[in-house]
């Protein structure tokens, strides 16, 4: 094993151990006593179910994580990458087609191996706790649609990247960066109108008190809201959510039908206000800029390491190639990605606090409604109310609900 192999191996094992420790700490942080803030929201049974749900999901992750680790290490050290590469090279398709087949085969194999675990998660765990509404037909239709989109859109992008790094010389990374940015922006623009409706039905919110109050709120904060949509989340789960997506004339706010069923009008307005806050505070733009910079740095570093023989020796490869180099560099880059992801989680949690503050400062009718909305969401989704800080540090893009509520109450007192 050379230096590259040791870096990748240590990173993979360290990541596994780190997640294992965070999971164990998270289980130990579960508390039998319901936090006082949630008295009257959770009954004893629902609170016990939320703890059981956390335990079951954690045990599930123990199994899936060790399985993924075992498969990856076995494939690596048994020479699987080289065997696959030699088999594909025997067809003499050329560097681009061979690259698509190599990368596509690895992705497809990962999808197939994950099917039993995904089925168990949805049809056993989610079913047990009353969340699942997915049918086998919907499950496999979603998977097929995702694969088709991956082949068409992902295949086009990967083909371009492979072509640049194969033929474009020292500035290949810059060309690949530019094309990837264009791809990201295009997907961001077309997804709400073309891609997302392939999986869910978006229905304009009908006339009535809810629509009137949300549109009035949007006008009061000068937010260009063309329309509101209800998404049929109940097609797959009873869990509730809301999100902002898209850009330009295709940007939209979507409320899950499960959310509309369970929240009051005031609470729904506060949820929308939170999503509008992300837009008005430029969180979405900031995330896009960070993504663009991150992509550029990644492509530049890829150009530096792509032709290092040692990187291919680490995986027992007989031949070097751009397509295998893309995969291996992704593994080599993982330590930096781990660190960056932690900082991005911190950044995201900070933005969630800011969006909460924006909501309570701009909703005139009932600024306390956001607290009620968060409580109901936590109860209906069986959220863990007392996650361990280390687990939050590694995995949470949103602050724990008790922290959010405490911060909202503090902001209300000082405003």
Automatic annotation (TrEMBL):
Instruction: Supply the InterPro entries for this chain.
Output: CAXX_Prtase_1 (IPR027057), Peptidase_M48 (IPR001915), Peptidase_M48_N (IPR032456)
Any single GO molecular-function term of the entry would be: metal ion binding
Q: What is its main location?
A: endoplasmic reticulum
Q: Which UniProt keywords apply?
A: Endoplasmic reticulum, Hydrolase, Membrane, Metal-binding, Metalloprotease, Protease, Transmembrane, Transmembrane helix, Zinc
The Peptidase M48 domain extends over 204-410
How does this protein sit in the membrane?
Answer: Multi-pass membrane protein
Q: Which cofactor does it need?
A: Zn(2+)
Q: Which residues form the signal peptide?
A: none
Cell location: Endoplasmic reticulum membrane
* UniProt binding sites for Zn(2+): 274, 278, 352
Q: How is the cofactor bound?
A: Binds 1 zinc ion per subunit.
What region holds the CAAX prenyl protease 1 N-terminal domain?
26-201
Query: Sorted alphabetically, which Gene3D superfamilies does this protein's record hold?
Result: Metalloproteases ('zincins'), catalytic domain (3.30.2010.10)
Biological process annotations from GO: CAAX-box protein processing
Membrane-crossing residues? 6-25, 62-84, 96-117, 138-165, 171-191, 284-302, 322-343
The keyword Hydrolase appears for this protein? yes
Which family is annotated?
Belongs to the peptidase M48 family.
Can you say what this protein is called?
Peptidase M48
């Amino acid at each position: 094993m050379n230096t590259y192999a040791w870096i990748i191996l240590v990173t993979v094992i360290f990541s596994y151990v780190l997640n294992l420790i965070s999971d164990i700490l998270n289980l130990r942080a579960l508390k039998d006593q319901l936090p006082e803030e949630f008295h009257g929201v959770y009954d004893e049974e629902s609170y016990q179910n939320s703890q059981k749900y956390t335990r079951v999901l954690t045990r599930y992750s123990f199994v899936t994580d060790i399985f993924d680790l075992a498969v990856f290490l076995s494939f690596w050290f048994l020479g699987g990458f080289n065997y696959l590469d030699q088999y594909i090279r025997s067809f003499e398709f050329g560097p681009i087609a061979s690259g698509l087949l190599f990368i596509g085969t690895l992705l497809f194999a990962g999808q197939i191996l994950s099917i039993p675990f995904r089925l168990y998660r949805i049809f056993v765990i989610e079913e047990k706790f009353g969340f699942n509404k997915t049918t086998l037909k919907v499950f496999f239709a979603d998977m097929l649609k995702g694969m088709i989109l991956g082949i068409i859109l992902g295949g086009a992008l990967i083909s371009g990247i492979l072509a640049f790094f194969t033929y474009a010389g020292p500035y290949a990374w810059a060309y690949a960066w530019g094309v990837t940015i264009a791809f990201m922006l295009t997907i961001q623009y077309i997804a709400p109108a073309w891609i997302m409706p392939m999986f869910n039905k978006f229905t304009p919110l009908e006339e009535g008190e809810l629509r009137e109050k949300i549109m009035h709120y949007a006008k009061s904060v000068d937010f260009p809201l063309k329309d509101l949509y209800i998404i049929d989340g109940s097609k797959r789960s009873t869990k509730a959510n809301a999100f902002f997506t898209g850009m330009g004339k295709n940007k939209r706010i979507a409320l899950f039908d499960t959310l509309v069923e369970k929240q009051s009008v005031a609470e729904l307005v506060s949820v929308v206000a939170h999503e509008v806050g992300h837009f008005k505070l430029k969180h979405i733009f900031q995330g896009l800029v960070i993504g663009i910079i991150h992509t550029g740095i990644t492509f530049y570093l890829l150009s530096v390491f792509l032709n290092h023989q040692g990187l291919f020796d680490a995986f027992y490869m007989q031949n070097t190639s751009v397509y295998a180099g893309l995969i291996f560099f992704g593994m080599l880059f993982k330590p930096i990605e781990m660190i960056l992801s932690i900082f991005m989680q911190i950044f995201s949690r900070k933005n969630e606090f800011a969006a909460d503050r924006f909501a309570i400062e701009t909703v005139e009718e009932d600024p306390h409604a956001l607290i009620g909305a968060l409580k109901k969401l936590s109860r209906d989704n069986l959220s863990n109310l007392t996650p361990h800080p280390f687990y939050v540090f590694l995995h949470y893009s949103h602050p724990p609900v008790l922290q959010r509520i405490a911060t909202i109450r503090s902001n209300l007192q000082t405003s």
